[in-house]
Amino acid sequence: MSAFKAFKACVPIEWSDKLYITLVRGIPGTRELHRRTLEALRLRKCNRTVVRKNTPTVRGMLQQVKRLVAIETKEMHEARKRREANHRALRPPLVISHHPAPKTESFQLS
């Protein structure tokens, strides 16, 4: 079992009032039933996220297409967005000087 599947397996989605559903795999090559389920969830393109209420109907639809989507709670979604924003944040430029350091006069006590 991969780490991502283990992570998805331990997510307590029953306790969250809203689910953030992201399509992570492509639609071409999938079954007609899966395509219609994704259409009902309004997932049309990869890496798009929709927010749905956590109802037994939606959870049943997600069970059908669980290999095509990633399911997150609100806290998980916000944490992932913060992590991605920090990764893309501008950093100060690294300035490297190739000139030798200036020599300082050393004082000798006599």
Question: Can you describe this structure?
Answer:
The protein has helices spanning 3-9, 32-40, 56-64, 74-88; strands at 18-23, 49-53, 69-72. The chain has 110 residues and is an alpha+beta fold. It has a single domain (3-87), classed as Ribosomal protein L30/L7 (Ribosomal Protein L30, Chain: A, 2-Layer Sandwich). The longest helix is centred in the C-terminal third of the chain and has 15 residues, at 74-88. The mean pLDDT is 79. InterPro entries: Ribo_uL30_ferredoxin-like_sf, Ribosomal_uL30_bac-type, Ribosomal_uL30_ferredoxin-like. Keywords: Ribonucleoprotein, Ribosomal protein. GO terms for molecular function: structural constituent of ribosome.
Explain briefly what this protein structure is.
By secondary structure, this protein is of the alpha+beta class.
